[in-house]
Amino acid sequence: MGLETIDLTPRIGTEIRTDAATLVSGKHADTIRELLQQRGVIVMRGLHLSRGDQLAFSHTLGQVQPQGEGGIFKVTIDPKENPGAEYIKGAFFWHIDGASDDVPNFAATLNAKALSKTGGSTYFANTYAAWDDLPEDEKQAYDGLRVVHSFETSQRYVNPEPTVGELNFWQMRTPKVHPLVWTHETGRKSLVLGSTADHIEGMDPAQGRVLLSKLREWAIRPQFVYRHDWTEGDLLIWDNTGTMHRVDPYPLEENRMMHRTTIEAIEQLVGA
């Protein structure tokens, strides 16, 4: 079976119609990677991939990080299934994955195993397109700025009054400094934003946070955003280097469960 593609919005998101065997074969891996970097998000509906098939397909896209159980990480706020479930709630706010790492990961796959009855839709914002549409004078002003990203900053969205123990745990992850504008090996540029972004180096902290909020508001305008309303068995892939994402909050008792694989970085995070 081949690949049939349908763009879901003008600026972000493409659906691929295919089957599991075609994906696992890797015959179209180069095409999928290229499409992913162009469109930010790829959706394949109702595939119901097994753990083995999801891992095998993920390996066709790049090196899979050894997270969770053999590369499959359970995305759920149920602490019985995920001991770090409390930190998953940070996904309710706009972010990119791995911003507190030296280099954020390239991409991830998300496989819908069980859905909540309320909430749970996932939103993606194209930060390539958001950069492209900025006025030229703003591009010149922002290119070269460097932003301090902190795990603690992202967790304060969820828990604004942490205990000393929680603070000590958060601060075990050293803040990382990334360019505000990621200049990719292709020459394209994207904004590096999200809930981990604490302040801008060399700028008054208050003014820097205003700028970061302004750019986040710009990047999540409707023309840059795709919303995915899940059905069980959907497989979704996103380019973590050129999108932000968030999920609508959902109740613990509704047992939403996603299986995620994470694809390691394929390029360095560099500024202009």
TrEMBL record:
- Provide the TauD/TfdA-like domain boundaries: 6-262
**Gene3D superfamilies noted in UniProt:** Clavaminate synthase-like
Q: Tell whether Metal-binding is among the UniProt keywords.
A: yes
Any single GO molecular-function term of the entry would be: 2-oxoglutarate-dependent dioxygenase activity
InterPro entries in UniProt: TauD-like_sf, TauD/TfdA-like, TfdA_dioxygenase
Keyword Manganese present in the record's keywords: the answer is no
Q: Which residues form the signal peptide?
A: none
Pfam families in the record: TauD
Q: Which UniProt keywords apply?
A: Dioxygenase, Iron, Metal-binding, Oxidoreductase
State the family named in the UniProt similarity comment for this chain.
Belongs to the TfdA dioxygenase family.
Q: What is this protein called?
A: TauD/TfdA family dioxygenase
What organism does this protein naturally occur in? Sphingomonas cavernae
